[in-house]
């Protein structure tokens, strides 16, 4: 299994990233130009084929193996009443994933994707970040390593998701520490907290920010102090995918916040990642703007579980199928523009 | 085959539409509320399941048979230089559809949909609408009837599309006649006309509007005078789907304009239809606003062929799969909110 000996080793890995293949992307563009359609008329489908080729370093992108990894974690901060659901729901939902009853099970099947759920020490929630760092350094690095090791090098596209009662609070705190503003800017209703709960959630985030302000210069320390194990694992998986040449679909608010420290360490660190959707969670739009991510879908979803990431997989399959399967003007004997 | 003896018979059919099933929709809403997810967290997926149930009149919507119908027609107005492609491309693209080389072939396969292409008298283009009505009444009614008859009553979801060099000019003219404004409001670049061509296209539309202004009080006459056979067939297919209880996915600008006369005859006539995407074609946004249609996707596409309609089918499959396949809180022994 991957191990990172200390934060410096992880930081070094985050700074030493491979580029995508300009050559593969150029081959895709050249072919797009001669396929039987007006130039550019497939819009974002053409951009998606090029993006997949670039990060797979393949002139003909493919989606033979699509993996969905859902990481689950529990959060000490839930004791402060930041969610309408009890923390017990995290482990219950993991059981629901295992028996095939959750939304992600159905959506992954439609997507032709392989779902794997990885619970992270659910019996031991992270510390309440208003009292202490959410994780000790070794604990954080271990969670990152679990995420990193969970990525199969054979995968053609990786969908990332999460489950964890309380984790929109952690995500909002990370976003605030990375990009400024407090609980009122970043906190949303998560699974559906009421007005009083939302006020509490904002205060809890602000308390966490006040306690850990000293570490805000180091994105990885922010993830350690304010995040959670499933967020750390997503960070690790996103890093591993870049190293293996695997394009990534990020899911929603929590997933985006989990990967965001990478982009603060290196501005192009998420170029191999596409954002599946704009979540209905209040802070997501500001987070996508801060990271210059352009969501594929805007369906008012806010479930997590990788549900939106898996949902958009067929759109990428269509992009790949058009690119590989369409005839050229010459092949089809279709007159090109006069 | 369906026949409409005259315009009055067609108009009567367009005014006598069945409603969807409130009961089926209510069953869906009740089930959504107890599935293992925060209330409303699947956003538009929940709305889509309800919409399918309502128009299929089934408490559990299904998508076992999804059909894509692509109608093709030729347009006399192409002689005026409104497209960068020669009219010969219409029949060549129909051959490309038949041999599996077009975008819609690939996308329909990803969607698990059955594609059927129906060419409408391609050797005899419609009249140039700046000189005469595009179609005589019998010709128009025949094209509507072909579209109407092409719809299989066994179908669970109908995707509509078109192919026809010059047909964004016809579509823009219909939109202008129905909703006001001239060529400058509604004309876009279609398959990619240059600036001079766009000016010509606007003038051609304005000339057509001036010639046929007397018929603007009757939406079906507008479709006859300014439209085309493939647009008339889409109108007929949209009507047939409503009569058979089949939800419809409209594709882009041409498809929306083709169905728009139905909405002018009866404001709820397109309630069984969903707009697949916001096209990059210039007039589409205004047309969606005029019809209060909310596109599912915004991918900058402008190909037609039913490409966007087929593209979004897997999103509807996910909606149906979640609705049918998810466990309830009680079944999964997951604690609901406290």
Short description:
Chain A has about 350 residues and is α/β, with parallel strands linked by helices.
Fraction of residues in helix of chain A: 40-55%
Q: What gross morphology of chain A would you assign?
A: globular
Broad structural category of chain A: alpha/beta
Q: Strand order, main sheet of chain A: write it out.
A: 2-1-3-4-5
Question: What's the SSE pattern of chain A?
Answer: HHHEHHEHEHHHHHEHEHHHH
Which pair has the most extensive contact? A-B, 63 and 63 residues
Oligomer: homodimer
Q: First CA to last CA of chain A: what distance?
A: 59 Å
What's the number of extended β-strand segments of chain A?
Answer: 5
**Low-pLDDT segments, ≥5 res of chain A:** none
The proportion of strand residues of chain A reads: 5-15%
User: Mind summarizing the main beta sheet of chain A?
Assistant: 5 strands, parallel
Helix count from the secondary structure assignment of chain A: 16
Radius of gyration of chain A: 20 Å
* Rounded average pLDDT of chain A: 97
Question: What do you see in this structure?
Answer:
The structure is a homodimer of 338-residue chains. The N and C termini of chain A lie far apart (59 Å). Chain A has 338 residues and is of the alpha/beta class. In chain A, strand 4 (248-250), helix 12 and strand 5 form a beta-alpha-beta unit. The first copy, chain A, contains 16 helices and 5 strands.
Q: Topology of this structure?
A:
The structure is a homodimer of 338-residue chains.
Chain A: H1 7-15, H2 22-32, H3 44-56, E1 66-72, H4 88-98, H5 103-111, E2 114-119, H6 137-149, E3 157-163, H7 167-179, H8 183-186, H9 195-212, H10 219-226, H11 229-244, E4 248-250, H12 253-265, E5 273-275, H13 284-291, H14 307-311, H15 313-325, H16 329-332
Parallel strand pairs in A: 1-2, 1-3, 3-4, 4-5
Helix pairs in contact in A: 2-3, 3-15, 6-11, 7-9, 7-10, 7-12, 10-12, 11-12, 12-13
């Amino acid at each position: 299994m991957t191990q990172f000996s200390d934060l410096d080793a992880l930081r070094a890995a985050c700074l030493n990233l491979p580029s995508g293949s300009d050559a593969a992307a150029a081959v895709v563009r050249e072919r797009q130009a001669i396929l039987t359609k007006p130039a550019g008329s497939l819009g974002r489908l053409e951009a998606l084929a090029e993006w997949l080729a670039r990060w797979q370093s393949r002139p003909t992108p493919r989606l033979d193996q699509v993996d969905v990894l859902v990481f689950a974690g529990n959060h000490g901060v839930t004791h402060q009443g930041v969610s309408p659901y009890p923390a017990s729901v995290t482990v219950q939902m993991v059981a629901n994933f295992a028996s095939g009853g959750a939304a992600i099970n159905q959506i992954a099947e439609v997507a032709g994707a392989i779902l794997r759920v990885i619970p992270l020490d659910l019996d031991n929630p992270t510390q309440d970040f208003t009292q202490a760092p959410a994780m000790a350094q070794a604990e954080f690095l271990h969670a990152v390593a679990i995420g990193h090791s969970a990525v199969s090098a054979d995968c053609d596209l990786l969908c990332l998701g999460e489950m964890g009662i309380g984790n929109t609070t952690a995500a909002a705190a990370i976003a605030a520490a990375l990009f400024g503003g407090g609980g009122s800017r970043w906190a949303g209703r998560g699974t559906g907290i009421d007005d009083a709960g939302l006020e509490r959630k904002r205060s809890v985030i602000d308390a966490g920010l006040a306690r850990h302000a000293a570490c805000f210069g180091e994105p990885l320390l922010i993830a350690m102090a304010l995040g959670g194990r499933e967020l750390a694992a997503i960070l690790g998986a996103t890093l591993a995918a870049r190293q293996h040449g695997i394009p990534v679909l990020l899911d929603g608010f929590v997933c985006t916040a989990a990967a965001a420290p990478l982009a603060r360490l290196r501005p192009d660190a998420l170029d191999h990642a596409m954002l599946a959707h704009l979540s209905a969670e209040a802070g997501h739009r500001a987070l996508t703007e801060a990271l210059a991510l352009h969501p594929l879908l805007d369906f008012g979803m806010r479930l997590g579980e990788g549900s939106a990431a898996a949902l958009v997989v067929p759109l990428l399959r269509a992009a790949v199928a058009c690119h590989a399967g369409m005839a050229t003007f010459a092949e089809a004997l279709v007159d090109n523009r006069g």
